[in-house]
Amino acid sequence: MKSNTSKAVLFAFLAAVFYALNVPFSKLLLAHVAPVYMASFLYFGAGVGIAVLYLFHWKEETELDRLSRKDLPYTIGMVVLDIVAPILLMMGVEIGSSANATLLGNFEIVATALIAFLVFREKVSRKLFVAILFITASSIVLSFEGSDSFHFSLGSLLVLLATCCWGLENNCTRKISDKSSYEIVTIKGLCCSLGSFMIAQVIREPFPEWQSIFLTMLLGFVAYGLSIFLYVRAQRDLGAARTSAYYAAAPFIGTFLAFVLSGESLSVSYFFGLLFMVIGTVLVVSDTLMTSHQHEHEHILYDSNGKKLKTIRHTHRHTHVGNLDSHHHHHLRASQL
């Protein structure tokens, strides 16, 4: 339990780090690549990159790790939503501002948590909801640069629609996250790339230059391929809502990378955003490492001659604190038969 949870938390944060590269670099590349082709080659880079890695690991997996026919509905949902979402995002980024897109992009956290709770009946604790509020507040503070930074427009609407698609897609992926991560990302990348490519052909977008295609695929491998791969691995132990909450660190990471790489100054709002982010992250980690569940124990009592006297059933609630192997029992009720 300790190893799995710690590794899942690390994977979730690394997924956020890689995804943080998406919007700023996509904004630069959109000057040379049309939005739908952009979405296509981002996913093509993800699919091809993870497929190459899969060649070195496929022997480690069993038949149970492979996607099966019963996983088909969630796989189709994952692919269709992942075709639509990045196209909407790239169109929103192209006609809007990257700051606005970064801010609105965090609605994916809320959408994922609400869909997980309302549709897929995933348990979302009060602590996690509070953490989501703090993380979202942090993202708003980090992205807000004045009265013109946030405005509702067609670009904003497109980004919001993209986040809702990804929120539902995150939950579809969660349903198959115990299967091969390599297979999931490869299928997602190649199928979504093909779907977007066909749409770009139909609407007759200008075909980009090969140099721009290569750079877009490289970005796709890191920001989509590796990010999605680690995200899926994290979902196995954390669930869709918790993993999405960790993903919300991406805007903060992006701002910090801009400071390191470009020498951009850190404003007062950055440190307020950092405070909110730390509070939210602490709550998420606390919620992740302290889980409760209940199960029923059955005890059979015998006399000295080995004759069965009675069966006693009682329910325990177990609270696991941190990553300890030990746990606490709270007796809820006991019934004798």
Concise structural overview:
By secondary structure, the protein is mainly α. The chain is 67% helix and 11% strand. The protein has 12 helices and 3 strands; from the N terminus they run H-H-H-H-H-H-H-H-H-H-H-H-E-E-E.
Commentary on this structure:
Helix content is 67%, strand content 11%. It has twelve helices and three strands; from the N terminus they run ααααααααααααβββ. The chain has a three-stranded antiparallel β-sheet. The chain is globular and about 85 Å long.
User: What is the N-to-C order of secondary-structure elements (H for helix, E for strand)?
Assistant: HHHHHHHHHHHHEEE
Question: Could you tell me the strand content as a percent range?
Answer: 5-15%
Approximately how much helix is present in the residues?
55-70%
List the strand order in the largest sheet. 1-2-3
Report the mean per-residue pLDDT as an integer.
76
Give unreliable regions as ranges: 291-297, 313-337
Largest sheet, strands/sense/barrel: 3 strands, antiparallel
Alpha-carbon distance between the two ends: 35 Å
Number of extended strands:
3
Number of H- or I-type helical stretches: 12
**Shape call:** globular
Task: Supply the helix-strand structural class.
Answer: mainly alpha
